[in-house]
Design a protein that fits this description.
The complex is a heterodimer. Chain A is α/β, with parallel strands linked by helices. Helices cover 26% and strands 24% of the residues of chain A. The longest helix of chain A has 14 residues. Chain B is an alpha+beta fold. Chain B is built from 18 helices and 18 strands. In chain B, the strands form three sheets. A nine-stranded mixed beta sheet of chain B has the order 5-4-1-3-2-8-7-9-6. About 5% of the residues of chain B have low confidence. The chains are: A alpha/beta, B alpha+beta. At the A-B interface, helix 3, helix 4, strand 5, helix 5 and strand 8 of A face helix 17, strand 10, helix 18, strand 12 and strand 15 of B. Strand 9 of chain A pairs parallel with strand 15 of chain B, so a sheet runs across the interface.
Chain lengths: 228, 534
């Protein structure tokens, strides 16, 4: 009955969720990222978590667009297990209209988009982008980047402009290795909490970042390519 | 008889007298306004087009056109230069709007120069930029004037004369010009006159194809020699739609095939087009025509990119009252194809093809350098381990992991240990300056033996103060110690900080201790934020 309605309305047919690496997959009732949804990533480990969330999808052949994160540390993406040959970075103009036109064009070709929206973005433009995401069955991950200058509490976050389906909040609870002078950071323990309107009951997991990618398909890191 | 032919070729080879309008910092100006470089440049182009109908635009920030017609119309080169200068000034004012920011004004600085040949006119526009008024080099003095100009001026004229003929478009054009110029200077060739005195064959032997260009440019000629032999047959491409087409994407899509055919056709004949005339006409007879220039020759992509720019500007500013019925592409200047191989398209997977298409579209909209892909470079500096390559310089459909990473090379000695920070800042470019203080509020310094003056206690970023919870380091970074000019000596410090909370008395709010890990670099007595583990 529902499928019948779907075809009659011309709604997009449901496609399998995008895969997510093992420790993070448990956060989602569907076992992966449901296509057409918007995920808001916040907390101090927001960007690392967003990279970890999209890693398995890129290894399965999906393309990842990273918008407005000019300072991205690509090495961190490699460690997260992302297939770096399928990522593209875009720096659209910051004006709301031009920004949204650019990102909307990217949605046509990319399964996953990690975006750090400019503060100038208007709510209606954000909504338009989400409609596009739903229609194209892509996944939009909106990240909150650390603001260096202004304290976080007084700012209106561009994150709030999007009516996110899932809110993923990731806070580091422990940094191991670092002490008073010696050694260096060896691992990061992050508590990830997944809630939101498309999440029946909030789930919480404590994971290590970068996620170990021992299971599943080998990452490009474990099978280094031979370059002549 | 032979003399006559020789004379005719020399006549053909004489440089065109051109006007160059150049904004050296256009893209930073546009981004300060929060606009795309192209869409912000469009009003400037239109202001110039009002006086000279056929201008060439190769990149945002540079307009070039021949003086012949317009100069005769306004009564000489001087009045023409003054006219263009004032037209552009008022157009810049309109782009700036009411905001009267001096920093913006400075980055909107431009120069108008007139001389024989693109290079001479480009250098004239550089002079004009400094002088604040147009510079006109009289026709008979042009060669002598160029001969005394420093070869260093090449670096500032990249946008005008085009890229080095290496075949790879990318951000390194200026760098390769710098290399060429520095080599010329080390050889004792400081002025274009010195270079012009050398034999072309010697320059070709040293610099390859660019040597020929260099020789021609130094002698005051245009970079590309005119095509000898038979005049090229008419190769105008005309695309007529059955009915008016309202959507610009449809127009662009329909032209894509035509552009590819045109480029293929030229390629088979062994020629490439460097100048393209595009005419678009609406059902009600409205027209938009513009000249486009690519020093390295047009690819089918470049044709479409130009068409899209022209369409966008036309629709936005002239608001044609009806759909497009005709698009005409006419190659205006052909050169001998230097044998550049364009990438072969045709991927194996749908996803790759869709991504490629989306990237092209975005590159068409905002310029190819706004979309980049990472490529492994290898460096100790986390901000330089990967470089970002313009997406049009790589074939996305055939990209493999090996194009992006090279982990066979292993970890660099002195590279940052894992886990890697997710945000990195280049110390030479955009790394914010911070302060690292000890418990007494003094700046922490590191001596020659890499010992810190005191333990770090606080970090100030702008007006925020963070308490240092833990740290690791300092780690010395010494690069290229063998090269005194490029040597780099710095220390790194990994810091775990916690933001000071001034609202500590508020009991209703649960206090969450948010800690952040970051990497600070001390170089030349200045601490900078090098990376954040976000």
């Amino acid at each position: 009955m529902t499928t019948d309605l779907r075809t009659r309305l011309g709604a997009p047919t449901l496609r399998a969720p995008l895969p997510v690496v093992a420790p993070l997959a448990e956060l989602f009732a569907e076992g992966g990222l449901v296509r057409g949804r918007t995920v808001a990533c916040s907390g101090d480990a927001a960007l690392s978590t967003a990279l970890a969330l999209s890693a398995a999808a890129t290894r399965a052949g999906s393309w990842l667009a990273i918008v407005d994160v000019p300072a991205l540390g690509v090495a961190a993406a490699v460690e997260a297990g992302i297939a770096v040959e399928r990522i593209v970075l875009a720096q659209p103009p910051r004006a709301s209209r031009e920004w949204i036109t650019t990102v909307a064009a990217l949605v046509e070709g990319f399964d996953v988009l990690i975006v750090a929206p400019p503060a100038s973005l208007s709510a209606s433009d954000a909504r338009r982008l989400q409609t596009r995401i739903t229609a194209r069955q892509a996944v939009l991950i909106v990240v909150e980047l650390p603001t260096l200058s202004s304290p976080a509490s007084s700012d209106v976050f561009a994150l709030d402009l999007f009516a996110a389906d899932l809110d993923v909040h990731a806070d580091t609870v422990a940094w191991s290795g670092i002490e008073q002078g010696g050694s260096h950071i060896t691992q990061r323990t992050v508590q990830v909490r997944c809630a939101g309107r498309r999440c029946a009951s909030p789930r919480e997991r404590t994971i290590m970042l970068p996620c170990s990618t021992s299971s599943g398909t080998p990452s490009p890191c474990s099978t280094p390519p031979r370059v002549s | 008889m032979l003399d006559v032919v020789g004379h005719a070729i020399a006549m053909l080879d004489a440089p065109t007298r051109v006007v160059v309008v150049q904004f050296p910092h256009w893209s930073s100006f546009a981004s300060a306004l929060g606009r795309g470089a192209r869409s912000a440049f469009e009003p400037i182009v239109r202001a110039v087009v009002a006086h000279a109908p056929l201008v060439e635009v190769s990149s945002p920030g540079v307009i070039v056109f021949a003086t012949r017609g317009p100069s005769r119309y306004v009564g000489g080169d001087q009045p023409l230069a003054a006219l263009i200068h004032s037209a552009v000034t008022s157009a810049v004012g309109a782009v700036l709007g009411a905001g009267n920011d001096s920093a913006r004004d400075a980055s909107a600085a431009f120069g108008v120069g007139i001389a024989d040949g693109r290079l001479a006119a480009g250098i004239a526009s550089q002079h004009a930029l400094r002088a604040g008024e147009p510079v006109v080099v009289p026709a008979d003095e042009s060669p002598r004037w160029l001969a005394t100009a420093p070869v260093r001026a090449l670096i500032d004229c990249v946008e005008v004369i085009g890229t080095v003929g290496t075949g790879v478009p990318g951000a390194d054009d200026v760098a390769s010009y710098r290399d060429v110029v520095s080599l010329l200077e080390r050889l004792g060739l400081y002025r274009f006159g010195d270079v012009a005195a050398l034999e072309e064959a010697h320059l070709v032997a040293r610099f390859g194809a660019f040597g020929r260009d260099l020789s021609r440019l130094s002698r005051g000629l245009d970079r590309h020699p005119p095509l000898a032999g038979e005049p090229p047959p008419d190769r105008v491409c005309l695309l007529q739609f059955d009915g008016p087409v309202e959507s610009r994407d449809t127009v662009v899509d329909a032209t894509e095939g035509l552009a590819a055919q045109l480029i293929d056709h030229l390629c088979v004949q062994g020629v490439a087009m460097v100048r393209l005339h595009v005419v678009i006409e609406s059902d009600h007879g409205e027209r938009s025509e513009r000249m486009w220039y690519r020093s390295e020759g047009f690819s089918a992509r470049a044709v479409i990119e130009s068409l899209r720019w022209q369409l966008d500007g036309w629709i936005l500013h002239d608001a044609p009252t009806s759909g497009v019925v005709m698009v005409r592409l006419s190659p205006e200047q052909l050169i001998v194809n230097a044998g550049r191989q364009s990438a072969l398209w045709g991927g194996e997977r749908d996803g790759d093809r869709h991504a490629q298409r989306a990237v092209r579209r975005v590159a068409d909209m905002n310029g190819a350098d706004s979309v980049t892909v990472p490529a492994w470079r290898g460096d100790r500096d986390p901000a330089r381990t990967f470089q970002f390559v313009r997406s049009d310089a790589v074939d996305l459909e055939r990209r493999t992991a090996g194009d992006a990473i090279d982990l066979v090379a292993g970890q660099w000695r002195g590279a940052l240990p894992s886990p890697a920070p997710s945000l990195v800042f280049d110390a030479a470019a955009n790394a914010p300056q911070i302060r690292v203080l000890d418990a007494l509020g003094r700046t922490v310094v590191v001596d020659a033996r890499h010992a810190m003056s005191a333990d770090p206690a606080r970090v100030c970023i702008d007006n925020d103060t963070y308490d240092v919870v833990a740290w690791a380091g300092p780690w010395p970074v010494e690069e290229r110690w063998w090269d005194s000019r490029r040597a780099r000596r710095a220390v790194r410090l990994q810091l775990l900080v916690r933001q000071r909370d001034d609202r500590r008395g508020d009991a209703s709010m649960p206090q969450v201790a948010v800690s952040r890990a970051m990497l600070a670099v001390l170089e030349r007595q200045v601490w900078r934020l090098a990376a954040i583990y976000a």
